[in-house]
Design brief:
This protein has 282 residues and is α+β, with helices and mostly antiparallel strands. It is built from 9 helices and 10 strands. The chain has one domain. Helices cover 33% and strands 46% of the residues. The strands form 2 sheets. It has a 5-stranded antiparallel β-sheet. Strand 1 and strand 2 form a beta hairpin.
C-alpha cells in the first residue's frame, strides 16, 4: 500500500494563512509610514503654508468696509523639537482708500449751533515711502458762538474757511511685540486766514488729527487680526518683528506684517492639518 500523508488540520481550517500574513505585514508597514510622515515634514526646511485671502469686515460709524488679509508661514529652522516659523501677513487697504472721505466725514462732521462746525469735503490716503501713509484731508470749518444781545439770543460766526491738511502716519510695533501703533506727524496746512493757526495749535487740530489716526489704526488692527487669519495653534506664539505700509502699485495701499513663531512638532502637524482645509470667511 502506498503511504500518503494526511494534510495538516490547521491548513485545512486556514487555507489562506500566507496571504493573510502578507496583508497584515503590508498594513503594518503602511501604518508605520503614515506615522513617520509628520516627523519627516517637521524636518523639512522648505515646509510652508499659504494663508488664503480672508475677508474681514470693518464697521466705522455706520460705514461698512472690507479688509482683505492673506499671507504665508514658512519653516526658518529646526532646533531639536522646536520649529521656528517665519510669518508674513498682508492687509489690503484698498477699500479704506476708496471710502476714506465718507468714513472721515462720519467720524468728524459736526454741526453745533454754538460751537464748532466741521464738514469733510474730500480725503485721500496714499503710500508715503519708505514705510508710512499720508492722509490728505480737505475740510470746511466754522466756529460759532451764542451771545445775548439786547435781551435776545443770537448766533455769531467767529471764524470760518476751507483748509487742506496732511497727516503722515508711521506704523511701529509695541514693546510687547503683539500690538501695532501709528505715530502721527502733522504736515503742511493750507487754510483761509487764521484758520491754519487754529488747526495747527488749537484743540480742533488735535481732534482732527486724533480721529484720522484712530480711523486708520482701526483698519490696520483689523487687517492684522491674528484671530481672523491664523489657526489657534499659531496665534498665541506669534512675535511681531516689523510692520510697514507699502505701495502695491498705482498708489494701492498695502500693510505688511512680519513675525515669527516657535512651534512644537505636534503644533506644526496641527497647523498642517488646518491648512488642508479652506480658512473661514470672517
Amino acid at each position: 500500500m502506498k503511504n500518503t500523508s494526511l494534510p495538516d488540520a490547521s491548513a485545512l481550517r486556514h487555507p489562506n494563512v500566507p496571504q493573510q500574513l502578507s496583508k497584515f505585514v503590508a498594513a503594518s508597514l503602511i501604518s508605520l509610514l503614515v506615522l513617520a510622515v509628520p516627523a519627516l515634514r517637521a524636518n523639512d526646511p522648505k515646509l510652508s503654508f499659504k494663508i488664503p485671502p480672508v475677508n474681514i469686515p470693518l464697521h466705522i460709524k455706520g460705514q461698512e468696509l472690507n479688509i482683505v488679509a492673506s499671507g504665508a508661514i514658512s519653516m526658518a529652522r529646526k532646533d531639536h523639537d522646536l520649529n521656528e516659523m517665519n510669518l508674513s501677513l498682508n492687509a489690503d487697504l484698498a477699500d479704506l482708500q476708496k471710502n476714506i472721505g465718507p468714513v472721515l466725514g462720519a467720524v468728524l462732521d459736526k454741526n453745533s449751533r454754538c460751537a464748532d462746525r466741521i464738514q469733510i469735503q474730500d480725503a485721500t490716503l496714499l503710500p508715503a515711502p519708505p514705510n508710512a501713509t499720508v492722509a490728505v484731508v480737505h475740510l470746511h470749518y466754522e466756529r460759532w458762538a451764542c451771545v445775548k444781545l439786547f435781551g435776545n439770543d443770537e448766533v455769531k460766526r467767529l471764524l470760518g474757511g476751507n483748509a487742506t491738511l496732511q497727516l503722515k502716519l508711521t506704523p511701529s510695533v509695541g514693546p510687547s511685540h503683539t500690538e501695532l501703533r501709528l505715530k502721527p506727524e502733522l504736515g503742511p496746512i493750507e487754510a483761509d486766514g487764521s484758520l491754519g493757526e487754529v488747526l495747527r495749535f488749537g484743540n480742533v487740530g488735535d481732534m482732527v488729527r486724533d480721529k484720522i489716526q484712530e480711523t486708520v489704526l482701526a483698519a490696520v488692527q483689523k487687517g492684522t487680526d491674528l484671530g481672523a487669519t491664523l489657526p489657534p495653534e499659531v496665534q498665541d506664539h506669534v512675535i511681531i518683528r516689523d510692520v510697514a505700509f507699502h505701495d502695491a502699485g498705482d498708489g494701492h495701499l498695502l500693510l505688511t506684517l512680519d513675525g515669527d513663531a516657535q512651534l512644537t512638532n505636534e503644533q506644526l502637524q496641527a497647523l498642517e492639518n488646518k491648512f488642508k482645509k479652506k480658512l473661514p470667511i470672517h
